[in-house]
Amino acid sequence: MKIAVEFYSVLQDVAGRQRLDHETADEGVYRVADLLEALYARFPGLGYWDSRLHVAVDLEFTSRDACLRDGQEVAIMPPFQGG
Question: Which one, of 44, 31, 40, lies nearest residue 74 by Cα?
Answer without folding.
Answer: 31
